[in-house]
Design brief:
The structure holds two protein chains of two kinds. By secondary structure, chain A is an all-beta fold. Chain A is built from no helices and 28 strands. The chains are: A mainly beta, B mainly beta. Chain A: InterPro entries: Beta-prop_WDR5-like, WD40/YVTN_repeat-like_dom_sf, WD40_PAC1, WD40_repeat_CS, WD40_repeat_dom_sf, WD40_rpt.
């Protein structure tokens, strides 16, 4: 039948990684699929082996908690966004660190462009900043929103930037000129938790704190798919695409479960239970192009990262 | 991706300087993706500029005298520089270090005035020497060699060495790489087949004088020449037959479709460049006191569309961006000017659902549009009805399949779309032993040391 997948995913718990002392804010697989980076309120970034779950490296240096991490396209650098108002770039090859200063308040989100020569970050100073990675200098400051910026990222060809904020707006920017090209807004203006481009950058996936995830066609400014069933009222939960086996949307939920929807039919096809904490704070994207792997982390009380696989 | 959201009516030719990069360089060329500019300096060094960060990301230190030309391989991994120090160097930007590794150094016995890659294979290199000789250097294992391009021996019976040979002053591949076009000091264009290195045609251009430069429209069918008579000429090229051993080369006079010159000041031209769609031609004026780029509208009978004024620093070189209305020009003070077509800020884009209007529009409201009626009772009834209908409609609309994957890797292959009738041998020959210029190569980001902490 149309819209119903031939076989639903069956993710099973595979590994539980523990080490962080405070709430984990972000977990991300490296683009080559070998490593997993996690950042937490305990000011540390930990690098894990994505297959064995062994801890490989702990990066310390931030003076406040960390909200987000991002991998460079070559899996050789990690950028982190922290409440100490800085973005740091960590080299995994030679352990060097570069600090990007400029944000005047907590930095909340960070991402590389596909060539990894630029970084984009957003934070509680309501700006989006574009950075020259090689020189560590700010290239652009976009007066982007009127509330803290919760997510920002590049399109797959690096020509567009999408940002969203607690003001409920999703804005699309021309990466070269820094001009605002479009603003998407839902009628009720719910706070926006996360936003990202689809793999081909033709759509935008946005989750909002009215417990809804929407897929937007930004050309026509029309919402083409809505995913509901989970709970998202308080935290900036991340929703991502999963395309390694079938096409799914994956998101955490404040009922401590992970929800998996079929992209086309918008039906919940699996929920993953296991986290003890009250809320799941984040879900990373699925790593390896050939592996069906989900990493999840949750808020205080349950300080573990869980890996789920469907192989 | 951004082109779909930008105003399509802006895309014509650049009008204003967007950035000035101090680089001490004399010539600068975009790569074929338009992300980088290679800039050559008169002290023998060259730099690769990243246009996204507007910073030099690689320094090419190898020549000891001025750089005379720079060229990019089709996927931008290799850069070819030629210099007055008798060398041409191929640089590999995929090497992890800065300065990047040299892949090859090719030594000649005279200053090199230009060198270019074959458009399909960067191991085939065309070099022109200041002595007026052109060489085709093949670095491939099977074809290794260096062949001098020689004008046909149609007068070989009567001791060709006695007749004064005209010097070659320009040498370029056409965009397919199938032919080499050579300009001479006596105002001729010689066309060689790249594979056989034999001459296939000779065009005499009356009144042109010494040939100074060539540029091809992307399609390869149109050529513009610069010559010492201070006129740019555009030609529509004939289709050249495949080379046959004892066929005489075609002698043909070509009549330019357009002539571009400055009738008042009679300025000469330093360089010229077609726009990516071939509809515009930019000419860099050799004016000693100003920086002027002339833009001609070729689709509109070649009339002058605009003169761009870049200030007081005289112009040296001009190159058009491979896909955008953007130009790079260099000044004799050593600055690179990046020209762009500024698009006005659309404030309407900041507010979802709003539209900007050019002038005031008197709004005609519908009869009951802004009526204040206490509808609380009716509303609750109507609303419910409405909502369920709306929700149903919305559900139906959302049944439509979305495609989130297609187009992810879609990048136009710049060279391969140029297919030519007839002789495929030329392509097979050029594609034999492909270079390592794969599309997926990446330039490592070299981070400057952090002086803090």
């Amino acid at each position: 039948m149309e819209g119903i997948p031939d076989s639903a995913p069956s993710y099973k718990p595979q590994l539980i990684l523990s080490g962080h002392k405070k709430s984990i804010a972000s977990v991300k697989f490296s683009p080559d699929g070998n490593l997993l980076a996690s950042a937490a309120a305990d000011k540390l970034i930990k690098i894990w082996d994505a297959t064995t779950g062994d801890i490989i490296q702990t990066l310390s240096g931030h003076s406040e908690g960390i909200s987000d991490v991002a991998w460079s396209a070559h899996s050789d650098y990690i950028a982190s966004a922290s409440d100490d108002k800085t973005v740091r770039i960590w080299s995994l090859d030679d352990a060097s660190v570069k600090t990007l200063r400029g944000h005047t308040n907590f930095v909340f989100c960070v991402n590389y462009n596909p060539r990894s020569n630029l970084l984009v970050s957003g934070g509680f100073d309501e700006t989006v900043r574009v950075w020259d990675v090689a020189r560590g200098k700010s290239l652009k400051v976009l007066p982007a929103h009127s509330d803290p910026v919760t997510a920002v990222s590049f399109s797959h060809d690096g020509t567009l930037i999408v940002s969203c904020a607690m003001d409920g707006l999703i804005r699309i920017w021309d990466a070269d000129s820094g001009q605002c090209l479009k603003t998407l807004v839902d009628d009720d203006n719910p706070m926006c938790s996360s936003v990202s481009f689809s793999p081909n950058s033709k759509y935008i996936l946005a989750s909002t704190q009215d417990s809804t995830i929407r897929l937007w066609n930004y050309q026509t400014s029309r919402c083409v798919k809505t995913y509901t069933g989970h709970t998202n009222r308080t935290y900036a939960l991340v929703a991502t695409f999963s395309t390694t086996g079938g096409q799914y949307i994956v998101s955490g939920s404040e009922d401590a479960k992970i929800y998996i929807w079929d992209l086309q039919s918008r039906q919940v096809v699996q929920t993953l239970e296991g986290h003890k904490g009250p809320e799941i704070s984040s879900i990373s994207y699925l790593a390896h192009p050939t592996r069906n792997l989900i990493a999840s982390s949750s808020m205080e009380k349950d300080l573990s990262i869980r890996l789920w696989s469907d192989e | 991706m951004n082109t779909s959201l930008l105003n399509p009516f802006n895309i014509t030719y650049p009008t204003a300087v967007q950035a000035s990069l101090p680089s001490q360089c004399t010539l600068a060329r975009f790569d074929r993706s338009g992300r980088f500019v290679a800039a050559g300096r008169s002290d023998g060094s060259a730099a690769i500029w990243d246009l996204e960060t507007r910073a030099a990301v690689r320094w090419l230190e190898g020549h000891v005298k001025g750089i005379t030309s720079v060229d990019w391989s089709r996927n931008s991994r290799f850069v070819l520089t030629s210099s007055k120090d008798w060398n041409a160097i191929v640089w590999d930007l995929a090497s992890d270090i800065d300065p990047p590794q040299r892949r090859t150094t090719i030594r000649f016995d005279a200053p090199v005035s230009s060198a270019s890659f074959h458009p399909r294979n960067s191991q085939i290199i065309l070099a022109l020497l200041q002595s007026g000789d052109a060489y085709l250097v093949d670095l491939r294992k099977k074809h290794r060699g260096r062949v001098e391009l020689e004008e046909a021996h149609d007068d070989s019976d009567e001791e060709s060495s006695t007749s004064p040979r005209s010097a070659m002053t320009v040498a370029h591949f056409d965009p397919t790489g199938r032919h080499i076009f050579v300009g001479t000091s006596t105002g001729s264009i010689l066309v060689f087949n790249t594979r056989t290195k034999t001459i296939v045609a000779r065009h005499k251009i009356p009144g042109a004088g010494v040939m100074k430069g060539f540029d091809f429209a992307k399609s390869g069918r149109r050529l513009v020449t610069n010559s010492s008579d201070r006129t740019l000429r555009q030609f529509t090229l004939p289709i050249y037959p495949p080379p046959i051993a004892d066929r005489e080369c075609t002698e043909q006079e070509l009549e330019p479709t357009h002539r571009f010159s400055d009738p008042i000041n009679r300025t000469a031209w330093h360089a010229m460049s077609f726009s990516p769609d071939g509809e515009w031609l930019a000419g860099g004026a050799a004016d000693p006191a100003s920086h002027k780029i002339y833009i001609w509208d070729i689709a509109n009978d070649g009339q002058l569309a605009s003169t761009l004024d870049g200030g007081r620093e005289p112009l040296i070189y001009v190159h058009w961006h491979p896909s955008k209305p953007s130009i790079v020009s260099t000044t004799n003070h050593g600055n690179i000017l990046i020209w762009h077509c500024p698009s006005p800020e659309r404030w309407g884009a900041f507010a979802g659902g709003f539209e900007e209007v050019d002038e005031n529009v008197e709004y005609e409201e519908r009869e009951d549009e802004f009526d204040i009626v206490n509808l609380s009772l009716i509303q609750s009834y109507l609303f419910e009805e409405d909502e369920s209908v709306l929700a149903k409609r919305k559900m139906r609309q959302e049944e439509e399949e979305v495609d989130i994957l297609t187009g992810k890797d879609a990048e136009e292959d710049i060279v391969d779309h140029l297919r030519f009738n007839g002789d495929e041998d030329d392509f097979f020959w050029a594609d034999d032993e492909p270079d390592e210029d794969e599309r997926g190569w990446r330039m490592k980001i070299v981070m400057e040391d952090d002086d803090m902490i």
